[in-house]
Amino acid sequence: MLLGYSAPLMGQAVNATLLGTVTDSSGAAVASVKVTITETNTGISRTSQTNDSGNYVFPDLPPGTYTVTAEQPGFKRASRAGFEVIVNTTGRVDLVLQPGSGSETILVEAQTPILQTERADTGRKLETVLTENVPLGTNRNFQNLLNIVPGTTRATFQHSQFFNASSSLQTEVNGQLREGNNYQIEGIDDNERTGLLQILVPPLEAIQTVDASTSNFDAELGRASGAVVNVILKAGTNSYHGAAYEFARNNYFNARNYFDQSVGHLAYNYLGGNLGGPIKKNKLFFFADYLKVFDHQANPNTVTVPTMAFRSGDLSAVKNLQACKVAATACNIYNPFSGNPDGTGRQQFMATSAPGQATVAGPNGMVDAFNSACTNAAGCPNIIPAALIDPISAKLMAFLPPIPTTAPIASNYFALLGFHKDTDFVDAKVDANLTDKNRLSARFSYQRPSVFQAPIFGIAGGPAQNNFEGTGLQKTYSTGINYNRFFSNTLVAEFRVGAGWYHNEAHNSDFGTTTSQTLGIPGVNLDQITSGIVGVTINGGCCQPTIRLSLASTSAGFATLCSRNRRSAHAVFILSTMARRRSTPVPAQRSPALETTLPAFCSTCRVRWDAIWRPFSRTIGHGNSSASCKMGGWSLQNSRRILDFAGSFIRPPRQRPKVAFPITIPPTTRWSSAA
């Protein structure tokens, strides 16, 4: 509650305030002047009177273009037309009455802009004329316009196309974290539950105003250390208006990236329309829009896969690496079953060109050193004998595509992968001027993005496109009702209620399969949640497998219930806000080498099943990692976390048994952090 506030600025989230002073030609204030304002497009009008100081105020005005008229017996009528009232602003129109007949009118066509003296907040209002004419990037996202607001960093796309299905952009304001920003649609919360993203981004053609307040904003717009960004949708007027539009992009004129073998396919179509008008003139109005976005691509990917020689156990090519030329033994690959338990006395791998010529140490005694990749009768160093190649590892290698025998060790595989993101947008808004003292506004918004990213290694997934390949679907609803009651010129109440709900579910390409069981890895594919193939990482490499998330989150906010009591130029604020958020995560298994970018959920809980390739030598290098992979030196581990949502504890998942495979070094305990 605030007492004695000098400027009456309330209800600014979806409305605005218009005030001013009426004086005579000598500059003296004129009391009891009848002041009438009329919205040009809807014909809605309101009337008030000036107080003893000649001041008048119209709070809680819907944005629009207004005509202000002042009338007093013994004076000519004074009128100011075409005054723009913008959301979350306080506009001032001062009028001067000239002596004369009331049948005469003095029209004020324009005034010199003055400094903002009615309020102390900073920011910028992005109007329709700006949003419709400034060229924007893909998806014509209004958040690109935040780049021109002082104190903001460049808006960027964060996270994967699956988690950030709404394609929201993120920015930092005045040095604060992006989680410190508060995004709203007509005063109703539009944030993903952690504040990382926005759950619904309205089409640019449906937006009337974007209000970005970066500091000193009203308490009503609180819960933000950065900026408060509030989107106001268009509304109907007394005349019908509509539009149909399409924006298209393709790859015909795209240049090839220097490091890619070819140009990826692109077919992007952004098409829709909107319509607004009166249901009953001067009383009831509507606005609706529909947008469909087709984003179809074949995105280029260059990754590193084991060479054909590596897959057969022939690691001799590592000797040609620059890092291996510093010393003769710099990249020797050693047999972990030779030597002493402390690692000393180990022998370098040496394969033979024919069976029965020599033996090497194995997990259960001596085994034949033969490998058909060896062609030197004297023996081949850094080639693993075929008897030490684990059969499960050989099956995993079979998932990889073949590459030329002359391919380099790194960046040796290029693929164009299909990507589809088709999104439906729907908005509807109704404004009703019930009586001179009652106004009601209701809106509904819906968004449904459907995402598909083809995997680079088929059912095995792969490291392409941020390490997530599969399908995803998100359904989002946002709705709000705003009611204004004008009891008198000094007592106004506003009630606002709304809800935002979204359900995001993503599945990896191998969801529902029993690939791990088929490979011979027991104890993994127990049900649909644990379906798919276990994740594999070499030396803590690129891909950290986790149990993947089918994210079903519901976020509902019932905000803002506000009532205000205002008298004269001072005000008493009574502000009440109630909000409730609920998230319901539904876990589902991760696929191999696939990383879902869902940090908002994973920062709270993460359950990991890691199949870790253990290095068999103190020598760190590409060859040793590959040797560990080929020999099956890996163990399945389980990390458990208690999930905590809004103070409720969920029982940890059932402890899975550790599974050991042939030629496995005893694993050490490892907890996987929630990155």
Explain what this protein looks like in three dimensions.
The protein has 675 residues and is mainly beta. Among the domains are: 16-108, Sandwich (Immunoglobulin-like); 122-233, Ferric Hydroxamate Uptake Protein, Chain A, domain 1 (Beta Complex); 314-388, no CATH class. It contains 6 helices and 37 strands. The strands form 10 sheets. It has a 9-stranded antiparallel β-sheet, with no helix packed on it. It has a 5-stranded mixed β-sheet with strand order 3-2-5-6-9, with no helix packed on it. Strands 10-15-16-13-14 form a 5-stranded mixed β-sheet. The longest helix has 9 residues, at 622-630. It is elongated and about 120 Å long. The two termini are 42 Å apart. The model is unreliable at 1-10, 540-576, 586-626 and 632-675 (pLDDT under 50).
Protein topology:
Blueprint: E1 16-24, E2 34-39, E3 45-49, E4 55-61, E5 64-71, E6 77-85, E7 90-92, E8 95-97, E9 105-108, E10 122-127, H1 128-131, E11 156-157, E12 169-170, E13 182-185, E14 188-189, E15 207-215, E16 228-233, E17 241-250, E18 266-280, E19 284-303, H2 308-311, E20 350-351, E21 359-362, E22 365-368, E23 380-381, H3 391-397, E24 413-435, E25 438-453, E26 470-488, E27 491-508, H4 515-519, E28 535-538, E29 549-554, E30 561-567, E31 570-576, E32 582-587, H5 599-602, E33 608-613, H6 622-630, E34 634-639, E35 643-645, E36 648-650, E37 659-660
Parallel strand pairs: 1-7, 1-8, 6-9, 13-16, 28-33
Antiparallel strand pairs: 1-4, 2-3, 2-5, 5-6, 10-15, 11-12, 13-14, 15-16, 17-18, 18-19, 19-24, 20-23, 21-22, 24-25, 25-26, 26-27, 27-30, 29-32, 30-31, 33-34, 34-37, 35-36
